[in-house]
């Protein structure tokens, strides 16, 4: 098997490439390097620089590397940005996927793993979100992921392509400091940034209907998430006709306040947080039921929130050496 990993030079993609390589799978990275970094691609893994909107380049990459499976992670992923630039999100995330699926079916590649998101659920009014929970995305980003799942499933049904859509919950941590997320658009790096600047971390609202009033999320270590891709890829390759939709989370809710307390413990900083008004569109609680993937494929997460914060902090200190405390 050779797996083409689109977005393989990105934060999650690079972890998937590494996990695949450790599991003995051959990979090729396909990435337009708009946010991906070539240095994240390990030695010995070919890197094809290209856009998923470029059908000819995709067709050549699939043929030249005798690709037998695709893991599609290349996408835009910022919720707020998607509200301001919906057409860009639909072009990259939906049209890019359509072009890729066209190339994949023309090349008769048998397996396809799609990177989806818990954003497809929107504001779920349930304790644990199951895969059958209705999908009512709240942002263009979430819409493009749900539309993507539809495209993938419809193509599978029409052509026999074996497919899986993986709904990631809140991804954090790193396998190594140099693979850490360099963006500052999620809770953990945003708190790191404030603490490093000797400012108070912010809590976006503490009047939610949750035990401590702050939002509850299901944080998943990127190493576990990458392992889930290996498990799913192997399931697809072992028998045809799959049509999987799977949550990738830990099934455990952690509040913003609890996360900040964990961050204090790991980093040694203790500046108390400031509570600001709610951030528009934030659901109070989004926690996965992780049962389906456990029952169907025997996968479950191994790393806890402490591991995520410790490894993310090592990555942060690498790029912000002034943040280190002895
Ligand atoms: N938060 C703060 N202070 C901060 C940063 C974040 O209180 O400085 C809070 C947010 O309000 C939210 C929680 O921390 O309640 C987590 O926020 P993130 O931005 O880290 O993550 P989200 O849950 O908002 O978003 C994540 C992914 C998206 C995905 C979404 C839905 O980053 O890609 O889940 O699944 F779309």
Cross-sheet strand order for the largest sheet: 3-2-1-4-5-6-11
User: How many distinct helices?
Assistant: 10
Order of helices and strands: EHEEHEHHEHEEHEEEHEEHEEHH
- The name of the CATH topology of the largest domain is Rossmann fold
Please mark out the parts with pLDDT under 50 across 5 or more consecutive residues, or reply none: none
Ends: how far apart?
Answer: 46 Å
Mean pLDDT over the full residue set? 97
In CATH's first tier, which class of the largest domain applies?
A: Alpha Beta
CATH architecture type of the largest domain = 3-Layer(aba) Sandwich
Principal-axes shape call: globular
Q: How large, in whole angstroms, is the Cα Rg?
A: 19 Å
**How many domain modules?**
2
Beta-sheet strand percentage?
A: 15-25%
CATH homologous superfamily grouping of the largest domain: NAD(P)-binding Rossmann-like Domain
Q: Which molecules are bound in this entry?
A: uridine-5'-diphosphate-4-deoxy-4-fluoro-alpha-D-galactose
Helix content: 25-40%
Largest sheet: 7 strands, parallel
Query: Which structural class best describes the helix and strand composition?
Result: alpha/beta
Number of strands: 14
